[in-house]
Amino acid sequence: MIYVTGGRGWHLGREVLRQLTRAGHRVRVLAASAEEGKVLEASNIEVVVGDCERPETFAHTLEGVATAMMITRNSLNFVEMETNFIDAAKAARVARVVKLSALGADVNDETQVKRSHGRTEEILKQSGLKWTILRPHFFMQNVLWFVDEIRTRGTISLPMKSVRLGLVDFCDIAAVAGKCLTEEGHDGRTYTLSGPELLCFYDVAEKLGRAV
């Protein structure tokens, strides 16, 4: 049994579920509410409802789980939620946890997101669980944030200057996650995931301009 958190509200979580079930794997997904669970229901998917802020609501759902994918929404209590999940997974004797992290995760980083991911990476490593960490670059699908601006103004506005990123399709991230969840050889590894080329958003704007 493979366990996935963050199945809805995260494009990546939904894609991980799709690829795992398409390959014939049985999946248990943690939903935040019964309503959310109804959206996720499908063959080969067992939906359980729980809140990572309250371990008593989900810890029992990890029984019988071999591997787990931890995808957590960014929030002020991010570290608490991921720590709760790691503790519950350890108590349930889950064999392996694959964590979605962030590019440049570091406990000493200036940004809260990277500090939080850096902290929970360390907690996972010290937990005694087998682990794999995925650090993706900027999701290619995030460019869709600018659809309305492109349509109405013909511009993309983002404070990135000429910084170059390896924009990566979340379908490819999900494919890597699937291999880490179902194959041997990935324990204790941290993977930085990127697309095929480094692009700044001037490049992105130029490519979109040609396409439209």
Overview of the structural elements:
With 212 residues, the protein is α/β, with parallel strands linked by helices. The chain contains 7 helices and 7 strands, in the order βαβαββαβαβααβα. It has helices at 11-22, 34-40, 78-91, 112-125, 147-153, 170-182, 201-211; strands at residues 2-5, 27-31, 45-49, 67-70, 96-100, 130-136, 189-193. It has a 7-stranded parallel beta sheet with strand order 3-2-1-4-5-6-7, sandwiched between helices. α2 links the parallel β2 and β3 (45-49). The chain is globular and about 50 Å long. The chain starts with a strand and ends with a helix.
Labels describing this entry:
alpha/beta; 212 residues; 7 helices
List the helices and strands and how they pair.
Layout (H helix, E strand, L loop, with lengths): L1 E4 L5 H12 L4 E5 L2 H7 L4 E5 L17 E4 L7 H14 L4 E5 L11 H14 L4 E7 L10 H7 L16 H13 L6 E5 L7 H11 L1
Parallel strand pairs: 1-2, 1-4, 2-3, 4-5, 5-6, 6-7
* Order of strands across the main sheet: 3-2-1-4-5-6-7
The total beta strand count reads 7
> Biggest β-sheet: count, sense, barrel?
7 strands, parallel
Task: Provide the residue-averaged pLDDT.
Answer: 93
Query: How much helical structure, as a percent, in the residues?
Result: 25-40%
Low-confidence stretches: none
What is the succession of H and E elements? EHEHEEHEHEHHEH
Q: Strand fraction band? A: 15-25%
Q: What structural class is derived from the secondary structure elements?
A: alpha/beta
**C-alpha end-to-end distance:** 44 Å
Count up the helices.
Answer: 7
Query: What gyration radius follows from the Cα positions, in whole Å?
Result: 18 Å
Shape: globular
